[in-house]
TrEMBL record:
Mg(2+) binds at residues 11, 101. It is found in: Cytoplasm. The gene is dinB. It comes from the Bacteria. CDD domains: PolY_Pol_IV_kappa. This is DNA polymerase IV. Monomer. It catalyses: DNA(n) + a 2'-deoxyribonucleoside 5'-triphosphate = DNA(n+1) + diphosphate. Residues 7-183 form the UmuC domain.
Length: 398
């Protein structure tokens, strides 16, 4: 016998663009694009005209010439996310965050206290609208996978409950692209075999799906198509990495400009580490060249750190090694990811090198920014230069 539909997947609608429309009433009802060179987010008015996340800015404006383009404001999005997650955790202690704008909630234990899972979802949506001023879509189902699919189908600003007895009726007619983990490449492979719906994939033998897609992917997707997803809501799950990137457009960039962008990105990410009492061990440099090919360069440290100076030195070394390729092919995007994250309390004491002055500088800068705002103080390399920030390494999910 199947269990009860007690898992909620809550997903903020067109998150970055919705925050912009919330904060600027003149943008409401108008097509809004967040980001210039690359679309980081689009309002539903812009999406209706064909604009999509990660699309080039020029193409987006060709599709929607009357769109209002606004620069990203990551501090505003982070603040809105914190407010929404506070409501999640006030609803249930069993919260698994997936990204800045979505989470799973297990609410099965609330029936005798608050009400049914659907009633909990209704109240959650009302609170996010009233307290944060944003629309949120919620899917309710027996498993995380089905709840996530339900919230996507229910968008925008919807609530969809998939009761256990109608799971097949809901899932099997959907296109295979709705399966969690099916991107453009996997979808194309399935289409070549004539597989276009979840039901058609479910009808295959598992071995056939594995031959089509490879053992790991085939096994996973075939199980989902047959409604097998045993994963519980994981409240211990922590983000494995953090990152930021900047789209640079197509014009040539000088060495000084790239160094500035790198310093801005590292400065911001190092502060995020310290704010979260986290350290990292691996620095990853992400580049997109003028021919739209991508490359990554990484270095793993001997011991984890949250020190801006150490992280910046490593990133600058990685960038220096990539300069010949940049000179030959041009560059349209630069980004940094910090991975292998751990808690500061788990960090081993450092040996002889004295980073005391840098640590004090980090502390002073963090304190000033907390009190007077993120743009109140900069490192010398940034004086008089563009302080603009970009998106996280992964665009927001919508």
């Amino acid at each position: 016998m199947r269990g009860e539909a007690t898992v909620l997947h809550a997903d903020l609608d067109a998150f970055y663009a919705s925050v912009e429309q919330r904060d600027a009433p003149e943008l409401r009802g108008r097509p809004v694009i967040v980001g210039g060179g690359v679309v980081l987010a689009a309002s539903y008015e812009a999406k209706a005209r064909g604009v999509r996340t990660a699309m080039g800015g020029r193409q987006a404006l060709e599709l929607c010439p009357d769109a209002v383009v606004v620069p990203p404001r990551m501090e505003a999005y982070s603040a809105a996310s914190r407010d929404v997650f506070a409501i999640f955790r006030d609803t249930t202690p069993l919260v698994e965050g997936l990204s800045i704008d979505e989470a799973f909630l297990e609410v099965g234990g609330l029936r005798h206290i608050v009400g049914t899972p659907e009633q909990v979802a209704v109240r959650l949506r009302e609170r996010v609208r009233a307290e944060v001023g944003l629309a949120i879509s919620v899917g309710v189902a027996r498993t995380k996978f089905l709840a996530k699919v339900a919230s996507a189908v229910g968008k925008p600003d919807g609530l969809l409950v998939v009761e256990p007895e109608r799971e097949e009726e809901f899932l099997l007619p959907l296109p295979v692209e709705r399966l969690w983990g099916v991107g453009a490449v996997t979808a194309e492979k399935l289409h070549r075999y004539g597989i276009r719906t979840v039901g058609q994939l479910a009808e295959l033998e598992a071995a056939t799906a594995e031959r089509m897609l490879g053992k790991a992917v085939g096994t996973h997707l075939h199980a989902l198509a047959r409604l097998r997803d045993p994963r519980p809501v994981d409240t211990t799950r922590r983000r494995g990495s953090i990152g930021s990137q900047r789209a640079l457009g197509s014009r040539p960039r000088s060495t000084e400009e790239l160094d500035l962008f790198l310093t801005q990105i590292i400065d911001r990410l190092a502060r995020r580490l310290r704010d979260g009492d986290r350290v990292c061990r691996t620095v990853v440099l992400r580049l997109r060249f003028g021919d739209f090919t991508k490359a990554t360069r990484s270095r793993t440290l001997g011991s984890p750190t949250d020190r801006t100076a150490i992280l910046l030195t490593v990133a600058q070394t990685l960038l220096a090694a990539a300069r010949p390729e940049i000179a030959e092919r041009g560059i349209t995007l630069i980004g940094i990811s910090l991975s292998q994250l751990d808690r500061t309390e788990n960090m081993q004491p450092e040996l002889p090198i004295d980073w005391g002055d840098e640590q004090r500088l980090d502390t002073v800068l963090d304190t000033l920014r907390d009190r007077f705002g993120a743009a109140s103080v900069s490192r010398a390399a940034q004086l008089g230069r563009d302080p603009g920030w970009s998106s996280p390494v992964l665009p927001e999910h919508e």
